[in-house]
Amino acid sequence: YLVKKNHTNEIFAMKILSKQNIANKQQEKHVKTEREVLTLLNHKPFFIDFHYSFEMNKNVYFILEYCPGGELFTLIQKNNRLTESQARFFGAQLVLAIETLHSKDIIYRDLKPENVLLDVDGYIKITDFGLSRQNVTNKDALSICGTLEYLAPEVIDNLPYGKAVDWWTLGCFICEMITGSPPFFGKDKVKL
Prior knowledge:
By secondary structure, the chain is an alpha+beta fold. Helices cover 35% and strands 16% of the residues. It has helices at residues 19-24, 28-40, 72-79, 84-103, 153-156, 164-179; strands spanning 2-4, 11-18, 50-55, 59-65, 116-118, 124-126. The strands form 2 sheets. It has a 4-stranded antiparallel beta sheet. Strands 5-6 form a two-stranded antiparallel ribbon. Helix 4 packs antiparallel against helix 6. It starts with a strand and ends in a 13-residue tail after the last helix. The model has no long low-confidence stretch (mean pLDDT 96).
């Protein structure tokens, strides 16, 4: 939601998470990880700024930076693809963002155009860290998570994996920026 702070007129984005949905889907760990990663990356280039969070009876609220440029996904869809220059511009920022995550032993695991926003100046802001994993120093992750079109082979094969999965995902993302669709897509999930 787009919200305004009453006494300052500052504009923010508010993410609302239902406690019931969190409990039903056993997502408590994901919500905690998201908040921890947002706090750790706060005010770092190419990541959404996290202002604060709070909870009330039924919901958890994250107050985040508002990015008026919308999702990178929308820009790709609107133009069917990006120019090579645009893909280079956004791709370079994504490389720097992934390097920042990995330097802090975090893997993102859900890099896709829908999770990349554009700020007022047209720079990327990665958001949605619910599938991120902290303290990854080796190939010690096993969870199958992410978006099917972007999953690395080792994730699909249920093998231990590490930071390399984010680089695979970035390759798929760059392909989508340049061609207008990810390298692997289809309606049949088994074939995909």
